[in-house]
Amino acid sequence: MADQTPDFDLDYAPAPESTAVVHLADEYGLFIGGEFVAPRSGRTFDTINPATEERLATVSEGDADDVDLAVASAREAFEEHWRDTPGTVRARYLYRIARQLQERSREFAVLETMDGGKPIRESRDVDLPLVAAHFFHHAGWADKLEYAFPNRNVAPHGVVGQIVPWNFPMLMAAWKLAPALACGNTVVLKPAETTPLTALLMAEVLQDVGLPPGVVNIVTGAGDTGAALVEHPDVDKLAFTGSTGVGKQIQRSAAVRRLPLTLELGGKAANVVFEDAAIDQAIEGVINGIFFNQGHVCCAGSRLLVQESIAEDLIERLKERMTRLRVGDPLDKNTDVGAINSAEQLVRITALVESGVEEGAVLHQAPCDLPGRGFWFAPSVFTGVQQSQRIAREEIFGPVLAVQTFRTPDEAVEKANNSPYGLSAGIWTEKGSKILWMAERLRAGVVWANTFNKFDATSPFGGYKESGFGREGGLQGLGAYVRDAEALEVGGGSL
């Protein structure tokens, strides 16, 4: 009997999100002391749309003098009023910020997509709601610190230096700013050089809600700007999200000064699918785990470990599902996979994929027409992957999945843990006992069961091994921004 399955037309009419809601300035200064100021360095750089390579705006590049001015502004605000501001008042500021972000969420989402290349659906439906949620959540804790840390007399650290990455510029800023402000710290924030615009737009929100000058300062720039912030002697705590290599450098600097530090670094997460899993659900979870935000996710499920008995069937269904991913204009509401964030990142992804082919893995790519301008990479799956290959060991940070198989749960644990990273993992099975057994043995900071890449403000997030230390979110993340009030302050840090 002939196959009578209908041939559904999966072509969608374009549904572009309007950019009219975004009003960009031609040039942005540094946000210091509650005002936009010209950089002392006199240097600027252009930020571009990675989907079109068109210039969006000119942004100031701060140097050591600019960082010094920002830290001094934060120090003055901390000592003169912010550390003594009642928690109820700090809570009101955080609540106002959250409400403003909600009211302007479409504007922020569109700008995030323009500046970073991620699909508008993700910016609109994931990033911005979570950003507001973090500010709401920490607004609730600002006047309840004695209940958050019972039997402790806590105090803020002081001036906090925070460096955020380009993959989730708004969300990472919220993860860091909200708990720091709730606990009474002041902040110098350094956004990523390729995605600075949403942080600068948030500076306008801080002005609108009347946040006192100097409580939050934003210094844009590249690696040298971040290094100046890390090395500044009047910074009391550091928080960094980014690459493992840079994180190690920051850790060495902080260790010499005994400076409190939170590091959230790279990952090479394993998604483990057992034979009793709901296969269709698991495939959707695997697809979301690796192709969400073009794989620009530190906790991306970039390794798939599938039990041998179902491997052939699951891999074929996975490859078929991958062919239906829509790659293209990030501002189109139908788009599943947007643009790679930068030319440099595209070069790295391409090099690692080429190494996978050279080392004997089998490459499968979605048959899609990539735009002629911008930075793009087709969704990719490698089969026949061996542990010795670079694609199984190194963080690709792109839409590339490496598939391996296993026979027993013990083998799955061994393969999942055979990585220098330990940020996240996923387990797919119908048996709760198996989930608990695996979760106890996986060396990962976050373990999802029958889902992946799900976050909320009440849950801690962070890693083991070369994925960093410390937690963000939840009470554990709040605790990173307080110290014992009786602690003896030494230099710029505290013991």
CATH topology of the largest domain: Aldehyde Dehydrogenase, Chain A, domain 1
Radius of gyration: 23 Å
**How do the strands of the widest beta sheet line up side by side?**
14-15-16-13-12-18-19
Shape verdict: globular
Uncertain residue segments: 488-495
Determine the N-to-C terminus distance.
77 Å
Total strands: 24
Q: Say what oligomer this is.
A: single chain
* Average pLDDT score: 95
Second CATH tier, the architecture of the largest domain: 3-Layer(aba) Sandwich
What would you say this structure looks like, in words?
There is one protein chain. The protein is α/β, with parallel strands linked by helices. The chain has two domains: 27-265 and 467-494, Aldehyde Dehydrogenase, Chain A, domain 1 (3-Layer(aba) Sandwich), CATH 3.40.605.10; 270-449, Aldehyde Dehydrogenase, Chain A, domain 2 (3-Layer(aba) Sandwich). The protein has helices spanning 64-80, 87-103, 105-116, 120-141, 145-148, 169-182, 197-208, 223-231, 244-257, 279-291, 308-322, 343-358, 390-393, 409-417, 432-441, 474-479; strands spanning 27-28, 30-32, 35-37, 43-49, 54-61, 154-156, 159-163, 186-190, 216-218, 237-241, 261-264, 270-273, 303-307, 362-365, 380-383, 400-406, 421-422, 424-428, 446-449, 464-465, 468-469, 482-484, 489-490, 493-494. The chain has a seven-stranded mixed β-sheet, sandwiched between helices. Strands 9-8-7-10-11-21 form a six-stranded mixed β-sheet, with helices on both faces. A three-stranded mixed β-sheet has the order 1-5-4, with helices on one face. Helix 7 links the parallel strand 8 (186-190) and strand 9. Helix 1 crosses helix 8 (223-231) and helix 4 runs parallel beside helix 6. The longest helix has 22 residues, at 120-141. Mean pLDDT is 95; it is low at 488-495.
